[in-house]
């Protein structure tokens, strides 16, 4: 049971990392169209939460200077095409799996190929994301770095609390 919980937590964190990266890039692109001094209006629709989470949201709480904001946008814009390419390849692999039925004679081979490809892509994504993180970290002042660490710890605690609440709710539903 504990290994399943660890696997679920790892999957949730990996998915969250990818969503954070994707949201950060889309928010950075949207920020190019929005004046830096004006806060972005609340987004509407099914993906509205993207505008309230992720790297850009945390960075917006650090009171970045105009020069820092421009640097972050440049870093994100430079990383965007490679991240998008990796994401598209992972989606294509996911589609390949969904299109192959378990009773297909080649199913095990497709699963093995996708597993290997996605392992490599995931590694590339982590490397790219952490390179972006390191570049952004370098442009922050020591006070901003400390504040960012506190914000990240706060977000992690909130995510863990939500996961615990979901697990508790799931246990309550199965016990009935």
What is the chain-wise order of helices and strands?
A: HHHHH
In DSSP terms, counting alpha (H) and pi (I) runs of 4 or more, how many helices?
A: 5
Helical proportion, percent range: over 70%
Based on CA atoms alone, the radius of gyration comes out at 19 Å
**Coarse structural class:** mainly alpha
Shape annotation: flat
Given as residue ranges, the uncertain stretches (5+ residues, pLDDT < 50) are: 3-53
Strand content: under 5%
Q: Summarize the biggest pleated sheet.
A: none
Give the N-to-C terminal Cα separation: 20 Å
Mean pLDDT across every amino acid position: 76
Question: What is the structure about, briefly put?
Answer:
The protein has 176 residues and is mostly helical.
Could you describe the 3D structure shown?
- This protein is mainly alpha-helical and 176 residues long.
- It has a domain at 2-36 and 65-139.
- It has helices spanning 2-31, 55-60, 66-99, 107-139, 142-175.
- α1 (2-31) packs across α3 (66-99) and α3 runs antiparallel to α4 (107-139).
- It is flat.
Looking at this protein, list some descriptive labels.
176 residues; 5 helices; mainly alpha
Topology:
Layout: H1 2-31, H2 55-60, H3 66-99, H4 107-139, H5 142-175
Helix pairs in contact: 1-3, 3-4
């Amino acid at each position: 049971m504990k290994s399943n919980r660890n696997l679920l937590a790892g999957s949730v964190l990996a998915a969250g990392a990818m969503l954070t990266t994707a949201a950060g890039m889309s928010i950075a692109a949207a920020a190019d169209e929005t004046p830096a001094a004006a806060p972005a209006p609340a987004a509407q629709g099914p993906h509205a939460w993207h505008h309230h989470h992720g790297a850009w949201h945390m960075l917006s709480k650090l009171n970045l200077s105009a020069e820092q904001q421009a640097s972050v946008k440049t870093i994100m814009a430079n990383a965007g095409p490679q991240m998008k390419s990796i994401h598209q390849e992972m989606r294509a692999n996911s589609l390949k799996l969904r299109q192959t039925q378990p009773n297909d004679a080649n199913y095990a081979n497709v699963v093995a190929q996708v597993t290997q490809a996605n392992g490599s892509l995931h590694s590339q994504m982590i490397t790219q994301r952490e390179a972006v993180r390191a570049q952004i970290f370098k442009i922050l002042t020591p006070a901003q770095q400390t504040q960012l660490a506190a914000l990240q710890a706060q977000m992690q605690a909130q995510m863990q609390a939500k996961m615990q609440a979901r697990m508790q709710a799931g246990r309550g539903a199965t016990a009935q």
